Amino acid sequence: MTSAPTPAGFRCGYIAIVGRPNVGKSTLMNTLIGAKVSITSRKAQTTRHRITGIQTVPDAQFIYVDTPGFQTRHSNALNKTLNKTVTNTLESSDLILYIVEAGTFGPADQQVMDLLPKNVPVILVINKSDRVKDKAVLMPFAQQIAEKFQFTAIVPVSAKLRFQLDGLQNEIKKYLPENEPIFGEDDITDRSEKFLASEIVREKLFRFVGDELPYTSTVLIEKFEQEGNLRRIFAAILVERDGHKSMIIGNKGARLKEVSTQARQDMEKLFGGPVYLEIWVKVKSGWADNEAGLRAYGYE
Question: What is the pTM of this model?
């Protein structure tokens, strides 16, 4: 069976989504493509990798690249790596969505703006516009930012409520080059299910443990098996010390149980089938032979 020919004038390109931490970049991409492929959290710096989300419509393929929020507060090795990821993404994209939060523009927003290349079209996206009670202030706010950079368009949206997202995609399409599609029409990301599983567990970890947990905590998928429609996933949360371990496990295992249950439910929704999820918490210094962690069953 041969695939249908690409229609004349088909557009396809890469769209970088950038902005300071916590302006809603991941939420925007997930909502645009209609699936959760990039994790979200109130905790800044949740996204550590370039995450690609793909949406294909009859006349275009949008390839969104969600980047880590540009880090300005600390100059450690992790943040330098994250910032390099942002700048590399900007330079290789066909279009950039520069995200700010409605009514808020500070030094961190300006530092990201200073990275915007002059030879790539940039759309200013004012997110969380639903939170502004007096809509009359949005226009002067947009004009204030527009004086700082030559944007190709300005679009106020609410990623959470899907407000103005159709208009945003119509604007994006204008700047995509005429190209054959790069991915299949059913693809929603270029990341593996194993990677997505680890990211989902990490999201729940930050959500339920919050600021108490260091960024150095890691989720490792030790085994990922598929039997028909059932996926069996065995994950390890690697922490630096026993105190972090007990923090994640919680009283009688309640917190780890909640992390596992919520992660399993998200995986089942994303993968479209049942998931058996087992999570251990291990201390990094010798985690490979540390089997004293608490087991949490996310699929019963």
Answer: 0.73
| CATH code of the domain containing 121 | 3.40.50.300
Give the domain range for residue 39.
11-174
The residues, ordered by sequence, that sit 6+ positions from 295 with a Cβ below 8 Å of its Cβ are 278, 279, 280
Are the beta carbons of 20 and 109 closer than 8 angstroms? yes
The model's pLDDT over 223-258, given as tens digits with 9 standing for 90+, comes to 999 999 999 999 998 888 788 888 888 888 898 999
Is residue 184, in this structure, part of any structural domain at all?
no
20: nearest Cα among 84, 125, 98, 80: 98
If asked whether residues 217 and 141 sit together in one domain, one would say: no
Question: What span, in angstroms and rounded, lies between the C-alpha atoms of 179 and 164?
Answer: 26
